[in-house]
Amino acid sequence: MKLKQSYFVTYKENVKDEEAISGNLLVRGGFIKKNSAGVYMYLPLGFKVLKKIEAIVRTEMNNAHSQEVLMPSLIPEDVYIASGRRHLFGSSMFAFKDRFDRSVVLGPTHEELFAVAASAHIKSYKNLPVSLYQFQTKFRDEPRPRFGVIRVREFIMKDAYTFDKDLDGLQKNYDAMVKAYINSFDAMQLHYRIVKADTGVMGGLLSEEFQAITDIGEDTIVFCSSCDYSANLEIAKRHPLAHAVKAEVGQYKKLHTPNIKTIDQLTTTYNLDPRDLVKTLVYSVDDQLIAVSVCGNREVSSVKLQKYCNATMVELATAEQLANANIPMGYIGPVDCPIPLLVDEEVYSLTTMMVGGNEVDTHLVDVSLNDFAHHDVVDLSMVHAHDHCPQCKAELHIQKGIEIGNTFKLGDKYSKAMNLYFSDENNQLQPVIMGSYGIGLGRCMAAIVEQHHHEKGILWPIHVAPYEVSLLIVSTKDENAVSKAYDIYDSLRAASIDVVCDDRDERIGVKFNDAELIGVPFQVVFGKALINNQVEFKNMYDQSTTLVDLDSLVDVIKLAIAQQKEKNHG
User: Fold this and answer.
1) For the chain, is the Cβ count within 10 Å smaller at the N or the C terminus?
2) Number of Cα atoms under 13 Å in the Cβ half of residue 245
3) CA distance 192 to 227
4) How far, in Å, are 49, 53, 80, 458, 461 from residue 515 at the CA level?
5) Which domains, from first to last, does the chain contain?
6) First to last CA, the chain
7) d(CA 362, CA 452)
8) Handedness of CA 400, 402, 407, 409 (dihedral sign)
């Protein structure tokens, strides 16, 4: 690409409405442009990076013996009703009527359609296994799009689906997909962890996420540095503390606490450790009010609660719901709790505690576990850093992450719902066992930028860089410099090297700044050294600059790129 004749836009100043480094740099570098909240245009540079990411993933999917297809985005709503997922997606699904008054949606994911497609081929165990994948645009009406292309309403996903006759077959396909993901993310030079996760609206037997480690991200991951334990914070476990010896029943006392409702207020007023307090929160679980008691320094995991209750919807109860149930906001507690009660297992490590008194302006002190109302004891709270690993008891650590890929063992959830069966060796009908696997291409792009940037811009890994080398002409008034740069440009293109030539009538400082902003790994400067038939060759990975003879420049560039790719591969 020669910039003088091309679409090329950059911005000097930071973008006001982009909170993530990746979003800011991608907009400033002219890779993307916001169209509306959570919807972005991919401009020429961004589209090149996206296609390179896609090519990496496609190669690995093909190596895993998966076949590429393309499904529609416009889908009859009945498909999701049949699978039982329409109500789970709720308002996050774009839904409308066509001109024939038929209900249609924009596909948020495609498990159902792939099951339908598979049914045309799979009749017998002899037709299994099958593996299919696509690159397709997905639509989800996110309530709060954020972080550039990390959380958006329209995005391109590689989604794959495997079909097997049993769980052993699923495991083989699952392992092949995990290997393909590892190879893909390694080629992108992403630092990531594989963590256990909630299956969410996908359902099924198992979910794992590939989390790119970053300083920002919507996900929080918990991991142990001494063993292989890792999980999303929503479902992470810790090694439980020993149960305390229960004190006598009925030894508690009432404490008048006017207008003191929160843990912070209680700890400050009475000089207490938050862990000596037990707070009780009220949740609306599929429209039923349930109280959850946890230690004062903990947060409830709504995902754990939802899983335990096998619920569709879990939300904190509103003030109106509490008032209608005659529950005093800020003062509910586990002693004679007026609604069904769940108690987090960590509470059982306390001998006595302060709790809400179920009366306005009242708490109870010296409460024993024996004083609690009827309840179940469940792991419902979030893990903290320095809790102990559930596997080896070492300290747990917490990091932020961007979910770039996920893998699901779906089992027979969708095959039964979509009537996908096969005849086994005994001519008996059996449900097909499915797996589902996704990679967000835009998220990969953002995660790469989050991990590979410097104060002046991006430094793309060689396999995904929009251009591998940039030719910078110091002065376009120097006809010899322009001529030499164009000759090298043609030679590099002939050698199948991605090259951009900055032949704009701009100051060289502007060209240097733009080259560093958009993250081209190698730069060649056509300037004063041309007097000696030489140019400056800059390696942006190690920040080295050398003088190279023009006659050997193409070979030097080829070698530098090859070495970097080999280093990346290694």
Assistant:
1) C
2) 1
3) 16
4) 15, 21, 47, 9, 15
5) 17-73+107-236+398-450 (3.30.930.10), 253-378 (3.90.960.10), 467-569 (3.40.50.800)
6) 30
7) 54
8) positive
Amino acid identity for residue 516 in this structure: E
Region label for 361, one of left (φ > 0), alpha (ψ between -120 and 50) or beta (otherwise): left
Backbone angles phi, psi at 270, to 5 degrees: -110, 10
Q: Could you tell me the pTM of the whole model?
A: 0.89
What does the angle CA 47 – CA 145 – CA 14 come to, to the nearest 5 degrees?
65
Asked whether 380 and 301 are in contact (CB, 8 A), the reply is yes
Digitized pLDDT (tens) for each residue of the chain, 570 residues in all:
999 989 999 999 999 889 899 999 999 999 999 999 999 999 999 999 999 999 999 999 999 999 999 999 999 999 999 998 998 899 999 999 999 999 999 999 999 999 999 999 999 999 999 999 999 999 999 988 989 999 999 999 999 999 999 999 999 999 999 999 999 999 999 999 999 888 766 666 788 999 999 988 889 999 998 999 999 999 999 998 888 777 677 789 999 999 998 999 999 999 988 988 999 999 999 989 999 999 999 999 999 999 999 888 899 999 999 999 999 999 999 999 999 999 999 999 998 999 999 999 999 999 998 898 789 999 999 999 999 999 999 999 999 999 999 999 999 999 999 999 999 999 999 999 999 999 999 999 999 999 999 999 999 999 999 999 999 999 999 999 999 999 999 999 999 999 999 999 999 999 999 999 999 999 999 999 999 999 999 999 999 999 999 999 999 999 999 999 988 765
Alpha-carbon gap, residue 252 to 256, rounded angstroms: 13
